[in-house]
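Crash report, auto-generated. Payload:
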Amino acid sequence: MTTIVQKFGGTSVGDVQKIKRVAERIKERMDRGEKVVTVVSAMGKSTDALVDLANDITDNPDPREMDMLLATGEQVTISLVVMALKEIGVDAVSLTGWQAGIITEENHQDARITDIRTDKMQKHLNDGKAVLVAGFQGVSEDGNITTLGRGGSDTTAVALAAALDAESCSIYTDVTGVYTADPRFVKKARQLASISYDEMLELANLGAGVLHPRAVEFAKNYNVTLVVRSSMEEVEGTYVEEEASMEQNLVVRGLAFEKNITKVTVERLPDQFDTMSNLFTLLADANINVDIIIQQMTSDHGINVSFSIDSSNLGKTLDLIHREKASLCYSEIRHESSLAKVSIVGSGMISNPGVAANMFKVLASEQVAIKMVSTSEIAVSAVVPEEDMIRASEALHTSFELDAKEKEKIEAAKA
Amino acid sequence: MTTIVQKFGGTSVGDVQKIKRVAERIKERMDRGEKVVTVVSAMGKSTDALVDLANDITDNPDPREMDMLLATGEQVTISLVVMALKEIGVDAVSLTGWQAGIITEENHQDARITDIRTDKMQKHLNDGKAVLVAGFQGVSEDGNITTLGRGGSDTTAVALAAALDAESCSIYTDVTGVYTADPRFVKKARQLASISYDEMLELANLGAGVLHPRAVEFAKNYNVTLVVRSSMEEVEGTYVEEEASMEQNLVVRGLAFEKNITKVTVERLPDQFDTMSNLFTLLADANINVDIIIQQMTSDHGINVSFSIDSSNLGKTLDLIHREKASLCYSEIRHESSLAKVSIVGSGMISNPGVAANMFKVLASEQVAIKMVSTSEIAVSAVVPEEDMIRASEALHTSFELDAKEKEKIEAAKA
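Recovered output after restart:
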């Protein structure tokens, strides 16, 4: 008998009607004779409401207690889904993280799963019950409730799929699958039938937002077949698996873009071994996420360093670096905001030199200024002016042959 | 070092400001060098909101899943109180029912506590932490989350006090203590310095509502000193303990009253061994709570049975009895609504014959019709017309010497 794991996110369980629909979806799988484990998130904005409560009490909530607080959100959802299942005649049982045997590190708010003790789940599955598991949470060996941090419910689902040796792990979202680009902006975007873990990982990291990178990494490590599909309509989703079978001839599989990027340049730092380490440790300690980093020597043996950050962190970043002017020993700091990052992704790049050059050519022909560049084995990213982001993406989408055919365009428009 | 247990109900933790006040109260006790375990309920109306969600999904929610759902309410409160404590410099830790080692039967929605494994609590207390425990909930030996039913948080607090061998268990409410009668209605009501378990039990059962009878019974069985006190102001509360010391000379310690009572009379039932059993099993199976029962023989060897119920159950009761007319074999069914029950309570009654007669005398002099009577060792109750309830209570309050002196009246008015 096949075991499958599926996950429904916060918007898919946002109200009672949607919860009933999720119950129907589970029933369909049960009716096929499958063993079904379903992971759910907290309902819609309920986590935000809990965070607001905590913030009304303190600016600096204790991490253990935040986990205690936030874990209630998913617990509410699992119980309601089971009630909805029983209402339509499906036997089911809900399990919190600790009841499902999801053991994590003690690291509150961002705990990693260390073990999954599946006996209780297996017993319920063997009894013919649908099993509902609270996403995003676990328990430490000491018996403290923990949460997994961002993308936690996706990670829960993938980890359960690995532990239960499930046939697949379906991630239900509000889109029908993974697209060559965000269809809300790139009109010719096309849904992919399949994509490899590495490509998905680049796209996830690059802000495509359908799947959390951590969950994709987990799936890759344990070779879990992921399926991204719509919780609203019954259409084929996108398979994320070891080798994307369908479209291997494509060099570029998709593209991603994100706004609100600021480039910061620190000029004439001293040419010392610890210059880079001092600067970026400073930022890391303040939890400022740095993306692209460029280091250049000046003619007089100084170092110019540029890096990109989310624009929301600009004030904090400038304050920090100004405050450390004496110890960092730089001459000047400059910044440029209203930038965006456009990236192309595809595992075919490894064996296809010149992809980056092609990308630059396209951007040049569109008269888009390139502010920064970064490359990995399967991705090339360019930081460009925010106002050019969509135009650049559409041009890249077309020139790398990602555009949908007419029929596909209609489907993309529906999504 | 003294260990104390205290409990704050839903209104005492109804919003963020009140939660901060509870944290201050806990800090005061910690500052005295006491080991403090605090049990809290769900915030204000949050349990109602959860019940509404369940009712939107099904008319008949699964009991296990209701427990899973409702247990989140207290979990939210404990985490917020700990955050508030840490904000004012008090080290603290929150524990759910299962984390606090509260083991119950598997009987969902109304589970009884079977064991309390205190090692985790003791460890945290020894580490100098304030311990916050989620009221109303526990865990079965099978690892299922259970709830204790009505009055559950009071019961949690008393059970923890017994298990931890605490000096006392304070129940913080929105009144300053236990009164001779409900001060909202009986103007001369007076707060009691102390009251015995049995008297409190009668008052609790009679609807005085300050403490749940189950918690009082638990306290009596384990000889836990209960203190009922105000969460709003720092005044002496009422001690509930084995022998109420201060006012032993009083025959009547307090009185209780409740409205919305209906008397139902079933006429001319057959005089058979199983007549009473058939009738009341019928009602019990439908979860209709019957209070006073009176059985009378008719001159022609039939039986007339009268009983009192909450008026909200009248329709259901009449339907049931009508439907079973053939099997029950009665001639007629009558009912009288808009009634109330007035009760006087005092352990001094056992050694004072004539208390009931005195009560009837007072009611007669006030021209209050007595519809039904019931007596126990330490209480006498009379069912009277609802419109006479307050007048009858005030007359009884005065004639049994319960009235407050002037100074006490002012305090009662403040409450």
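Post-recovery validation: Residues 63-87 of chain A form the longest helix (25 residues).
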